Amino acid sequence: MKIIPPMLIVLLSVACVLTGCQSPKARTPVENGAAPTTRNNCYSLLHQLLSDQKNVGLLRFIKREPDDVKKLVKKIATTSGTGAKLLEEFAKHDPSISLDDLWLPPGEAATREAIAATKQKELLGQTGDAFELSLLLTQAEALSYGWHLAKVAGENESQPDRARALAGVSEDMENLYHEVFALLLSKTK
Asked: For the chain, what is the radius of gyration of the CA atoms?
């Protein structure tokens, strides 16, 4: 029996976080047990994304990145953790909010898995500038997705306080997206 070194396990775990390889299983709304709502589906997808992103800071244990990238990645992780906790609080106080309404059409789920596998392979095999640029591109994609998920969830939220909070999460993700974009642009000059 071959023993897997602990560092390889950590590296693979972080790669999964970075590439979003925890894609939801393809389920139809009928399999989900009830007709899905846009709000709950957005809440669930957003919670999954934020929960994954809050761990992106673990990267510092296995890959070296410049201080500016490290600082921004830490900011993304902290902001994402705060957003995930906010959604958990919403669900705790309102049983109509489901954070596990992760249905996706089978083609979308398969495509996400293929993208995650490709990104994981790229990130694991890269070092230096190539790794840094791939990491920033991955973060830009995740932040753009989170920004828009939070926006749509807020637009479909009937409670004004929660809608405002989701608008705040959306704004946080948008601001981080622009920070990543600016850093990415500075690295390509």
From this structure: 17
Q: Which CATH superfamily is domain 32-187 in?
A: Ferritin, core subunit, four-helix bundle (1.20.1260.10)
Chunk the chain into consecutive blocks of 10 residues (it has 189) and report each block's average pLDDT, rounded to whole numbers: 40 45 41 60 94 83 80 95 97 92 88 88 84 91 96 94 98 98 90
Taken in order 54, 58, 63, 64, is the CA torsion positive or negative? Answer: positive
The pTM of this model reads: 0.79
- How is the chain split into domains, by residue range? 32-187
Contact 41, 103 (CB under 8 A): yes
144 φ, ψ to 5°?
A: -65, -45
